[in-house]
Design a protein that fits this description.
By secondary structure, the protein is of the alpha/beta class. 31% of the residues lie in helices and 22% in strands. The protein folds into two domains: 260 residues, Alkaline Phosphatase, subunit A (3-Layer(aba) Sandwich), CATH 3.40.720; 109 residues, Domain 2, Phosphonoacetate Hydrolase (Gyrase A, domain 2, 2-Layer Sandwich), CATH 3.30.1360.110. The protein has 15 helices and 22 strands. The strands form seven sheets. The protein has a seven-stranded mixed sheet, with helices on both faces. A hairpin with a 5-residue loop joins β1 and β2. α8 runs parallel beside α10. The longest helix has 19 residues. The chain is globular and about 60 Å long.
């Protein structure tokens, strides 16, 4: 399917229309932040314990609420939802990893080939507004910067980012330190430091910052490591606000502990279970959480897609999987698309959601948890990670205040609120 081009600059020159939603061009510099894996528990703990003073100030002087993310609650799906302003049924990216139904090939999403529409960043930059994107994970860059004019690079490949900004020719030179390890808290802090430097030097009118969830996968709310990380994030958000930016913050998904009291991961290997009951080779299970950051989670999350490989009784398989301990929801293709705004042609025959304390995988042999090195598995992907923070640093106008009371917000509404909803 070809990408749609539902992008236009409105005749008044003050707004753009993207995927049938209108966005005012920013009158003041605006920074939209996606804090990867920012479960509401981190926000609540941080504000209550004095770790997040900038976000506490937003709560008191701007807007703090909660929103739903797109399903599955994974990084690619939700960063794409955020920058397009629409759900996966429209933009087409329904996971980090998918099965091409035409070729039977399993493919990791690292580019914009599957993207079916334009982005807010592309449209705003096309209207002549200075725009920038900094992402932790390079796998997102080609989607986030799709058809965008402006500065765009990843912290993961900072040494390859070629810039020409006031004498700084690489992202490493801009930030003043070496490219971080992809498995580090600094990968995300580098994103914020780059954003602050860009703001100080170029003051882009619209900037999108997207982090990594390395810390959230490893450390629960209240752990010293997560407190230190979030304190550093909050300090940089406060700095952007002091520099004059309107800052809007959301997340791509939440995060939950997926282990029992003994520390062992609660895992259901769905393909193994179905094969044992209905025969080897009857299905192929795809884990949409799988990505190049596999040490985070061993490709285990709380949502999988089941594709039949030969004729079988789908209803009987679904009923069998529903009876497995730790399974929260099983829906056929049509119903999962209807309930969660997913593209029909990119779904499996049925979808499986595990509960907030359980993960689902394919075959035991497909998942390596040795990298956890005795740490508890924390992951995402299902309904237990659907709720995310939703903050705007300036007061909302009356129209958008009413929206918060009368409508369910989604993380993909964050650009709408930041550009159209502030006083």
């Amino acid at each position: 399917m070809a990408k749609t081009s539902a992008l236009s600059t409105d005749q008044d020159g003050h707004s753009v229309t993207v995927n049938q939603r209108q966005y005012a061009l920013p009158k003041t510099p605006t920074v939209v932040v996606c804090v990867d894996g920012f479960d509401p528990a981190y926000l609540t703990h941080g504000i209550e314990n004095g770790i997040l003073p900038a976000m506490k100030a937003i709560k008191e002087g701007g807007y703090l609420g909660y929103a739903k993310c797109s399903m599955p609650s994974t990084t690619n799906t939700n960063n794409t939802s955020i920058v397009t302003g629409v759900p996966p049924a429209i933009h087409g990216i329904n996971g980090n990893y998918y099965l091409d139904s035409e070729t039977g090939e399993e493919i990791m999403v690292t580019d914009a080939k599957r993207l079916r529409c334009g982005t807010i960043l592309g449209a705003v930059s096309g209207a002549g507004v200075s725009t920038a994107v900094v992402t932790a994970k390079d796998k997102l860059l080609k989607v986030l910067a799709y058809n965008m004019k402006g500065v765009a690079f990843s912290a993961q490949n900072a040494n390859d980012a070629k810039l020409d900004i006031d004498g700084f020719h690489t992202a490493e030179a801009l930030v003043g330190r070496s490219q971080p390890d992809q498995y580090s808290a600094d990968l995300s802090i580098f994103v914020f430091d780059a954003g602050v430097r860009l703001f100080e030097l170029k003051r882009p009118m619209l900037m999108y910052l997207s982090t990594s969830d390395y810390v959230q996968h490893k450390y629960a709310p209240g752990a010293p490591e997560s407190n230190a990380f979030l304190k550093a994030v909050d300090e940089r958000i406060g700095k952007l606000i002091k520099l004059g930016a309107t800052v809007a913050i959301t997340a791509d998904h939440g995060m939950n502990d997926k282990c029992g009291p003994d520390g062992e991961a609660n895992v259901i290997y769905v393909q193994d279970e179905i094969s044992a009951r209905f025969g080897e080779g009857s299905v192929r299970v795809i884990c949409p959480i799988a990505d190049p950051f596999v040490k985070h989670h061993g490709a285990l999350g709380s949502f999988v897609r089941v594709h039949l490989q030969k004729p079988g009784d789908v209803g009987a398989m679904m009923e069998f999987v529903r009876g497995l301990p730790g399974i929260e929801l099983v829906l056929d293709k049509a119903e999962v698309c209807k309930q969660f705004d997913l593209p029909l042609d990119r779904e499996g025959d049925f979808a499986v959601f595990s509960d907030r304390n359980t993960v689902v995988g394919a075959r035991r042999e497909d998942h390596n948890l040795s990298e956890l090195a005795g740490e508890r598995l924390r992951s995402h992907g299902g309904l237990g990670e659907e709720t995310v923070p939703f903050l705007v640093s300036r007061p909302l106008n009356d129209v958008y205040l009413r929206k918060t009371k009368n409508e369910v917000q989604h993380n993909y509404d964050i650009f709408d609120f930041a550009l159209n909803g502030v006083e």
